[in-house]
Backbone:
């Protein structure tokens, strides 16, 4: 188990603004696959470097199990790491690259080579052992880097954007292989990535970072369905969540959100606390949580189609209210069978329970109570 | 004739004409060493310095072989000292953060731009005070002080090119900081070390000024100083045949050295790291 307690990393101790990581708490269970996800500059790589011991935290504590490792050198931490650039040693063959960490542990050469061969087999590069890294393709280099990181049977595997240099198709294969390998070996793994699809696909839990702080740390589906704040909600999802300014109103015991383009009645089960009434909010709805409604539906509203984009698997429809009072167009995903064209006026509604309401504070907290 | 062959022919003519003077010089060099100027006949008389000490018009110099040994020992020692100091120094300047780093770098640059000759009188007096005049140690001290700043600068450039990832990877893989330097960074910058070795070697091999100034015993000279002695006696007849013959002998190792090191330079590391 890895525990990070109130970690702060400041590159310039005099300035608060230089804090790359600012009070980070994280617990990672043994054998878990965790992703650190966030935009560039959010502190995710800094966090990984502190786990590796290549950077020392300014304050806070890092525990591997019960052992405080703040001042333990990287070489004594028993970690394997794959770098974005793979960082293979160009003057060594693939075999020597994989055996390098073992030789550093004073393992006899024959045994280290035996193990290198074994690792090569696991990542399917055993036919390339005598080559130099420069003679390998990007995907092969990536595998060598994996093999080298795993050769010493590390307690913790750290992956720093390991797939960002691979092409899209290869990425999918490698992703699955890394996941499978991790599950087979049961090694605690932390991946840093800015690619949300990758993070969500591969990990047990995802920590979303912004400004050096963890915004939310949860399994992928929970991040998606129950974002705690505006940042998480708008960061995740492609196309991104629609965010519409509105005000909460109460009439006849019914709560509704009034925007400049439409009104939306909040279902009974999802009612907000009375304190929020008459306060401005942001209504968040994912593009696939809009749907076409029957004429008779009382909670639906009319929208005018502005643009239809074909995505292959469906259509991305951009709509705006008929009077064009909304500040933004709304994106919604329709299936290919839906027949909508530019200029059509349609009736739309929001799926029950599939909406979010964020307050207008700096944090933009999600006001929905998930029970 | 197509335009491309015409262009080629023009380029070749142009280049040949431009290199002609250089070729002529080299040809003359060989001829002067192997011809008797008065009779115009081929002779190897000028190469008698291999077996007997040089002696003409009042100049008496020792036999050349001990001088050759001096040259080899001196040059190799200079290479070892200069490479041994400049590689770790350059690493420190490239990778470590320490107080006064910026100032030290600026000072290095200043040192580099100072013509060494302006300091030579002061240097001489300091060496006299230290009792290091007419010793190899004195020459080496002055020589290394002069060339180290440049070598450190060149070497720093090579270390700057090494991605941090490589060094970090080594440290995660179980090396100490020094281990990463020795096992990963040094092999990575091997071509750079080769380059500064060549510079150091050529500098030492061609060093005549310091020998002329600081060494008074002729049997302590190196080849360059030996050659210098031959040409700098005033009001004497200059023996071109002898000078070119010794000059040829002096040039040969450099040419051989160049051929070998050039091969090494061609094998410059092709990185195993993807630059992102």
Residues:
């Amino acid at each position: 188990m890895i525990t990070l307690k109130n970690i702060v990393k400041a590159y310039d101790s005099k300035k608060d603004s230089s804090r790359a990581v600012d009070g980070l708490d994280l617990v990672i269970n043994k054998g878990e696959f965790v992703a650190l996800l966030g935009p560039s500059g959010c502190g995710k790589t800094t966090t990984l470097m502190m786990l590796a011991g290549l950077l020392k935290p300014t304050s806070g504590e890092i525990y591997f199990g019960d052992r405080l490792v703040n001042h333990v050198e990287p070489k004594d931490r028993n970690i394997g790491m794959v770098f974005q650039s793979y960082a293979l040693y160009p003057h060594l063959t693939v075999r020597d690259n994989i055996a390098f960490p073992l030789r550093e542990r004073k393992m006899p050469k024959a045994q280290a080579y035996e193990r290198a061969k074994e690792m090569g087999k696991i990542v399917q590069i055993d036919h390339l052992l005598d080559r130099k890294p420069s003679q390998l393709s990007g995907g092969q280099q990536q595998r060598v880097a994996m093999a080298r990181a795993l050769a010493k049977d590390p307690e913790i595997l750290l992956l720093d954007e390991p797939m960002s240099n691979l092409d899209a198709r290869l990425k999918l294969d490698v992703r699955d292989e890394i996941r499978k390998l991790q599950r087979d070996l049961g090694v605690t793994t932390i991946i840093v990535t800015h690619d949300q699809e990758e993070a969500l696909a591969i990990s047990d839990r995802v920590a979303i970072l912004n400004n050096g702080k963890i915004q939310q740390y949860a399994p992928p589906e929970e991040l998606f369905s129950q974002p705690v704040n505006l940042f998480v909600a708008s960061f995740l999802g492609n196309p991104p969540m629609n965010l519409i300014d509105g005000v909460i109103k109460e009439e006849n015991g019914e709560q509704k959100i009034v925007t400049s383009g439409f009104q939306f009645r909040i279902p009974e089960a999802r009612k907000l606390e009375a304190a929020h009434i008459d306060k401005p909010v942001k209504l968040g709805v994912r593009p696939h949580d809009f749907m076409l409604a029957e004429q008779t539906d009382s909670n639906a509203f009319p929208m005018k189609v502005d643009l239809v984009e074909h995505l292959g698997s469906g259509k991305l429809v951009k709509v705006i209210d008929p009077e064009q009072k909304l500040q933004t167009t709304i994106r919604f995903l329709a299936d290919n069978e839906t027949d909508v064209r530019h200029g059509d006026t349609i009736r739309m509604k929001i799926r029950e329970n599939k909406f979010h309401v964020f307050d207008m504070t700096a944090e933009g907290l999600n006001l929905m109570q998930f029970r | 004739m197509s335009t491309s062959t015409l262009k080629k022919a023009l380029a070749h003519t142009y280049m040949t004409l431009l290199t002609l003077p250089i070729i002529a010089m080299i040809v003359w060099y060989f001829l002067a060493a192997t011809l008797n100027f008065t009779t115009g006949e081929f002779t190897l008389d000028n190469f008698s310095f291999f077996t007997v000490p040089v002696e003409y018009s009042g100049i008496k110099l020792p036999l050349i072989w001990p001088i050759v040994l001096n040259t080899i020992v001196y040059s190799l020692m200079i290479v070892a000292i200069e490479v041994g100091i400049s590689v770790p120094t350059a690493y420190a300047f490239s990778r470590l953060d320490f107080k006064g780093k910026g100032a030290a770098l600026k000072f290095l640059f200043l040192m580099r731009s100072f013509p060494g000759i302006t300091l030579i009188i002061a240097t001489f007096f300091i060496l006299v005070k230290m009792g290091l005049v007419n010793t190899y140690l004195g020459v080496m001290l002055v020589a290394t002080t002069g060339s180290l700043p440049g070598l450190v600068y060149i070497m720093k450039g090579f270390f700057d090119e090494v991605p941090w990832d490589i060094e970090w990877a080594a440290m995660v893989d179980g090396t100490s900081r020094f281990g990463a330097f020795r096992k990963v960074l040094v092999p990575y910058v091997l071509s750079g070390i080769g380059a500064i070795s060549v510079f150091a070697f050529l500098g030492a091999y061609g060093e005549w000024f310091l020998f002329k100034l600081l060494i008074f015993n002729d049997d302590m000279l190196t080849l360059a100083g030996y050659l210098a002695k031959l040409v700098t006696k005033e009001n004497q007849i200059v023996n071109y045949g002898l000078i070119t013959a010794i000059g040829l002998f002096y040039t040969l190792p450099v040419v051989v050295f160049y051929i070998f090191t050039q091969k090494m330079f061609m094998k410059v590391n092709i990185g195993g790291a993807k630059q992102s």
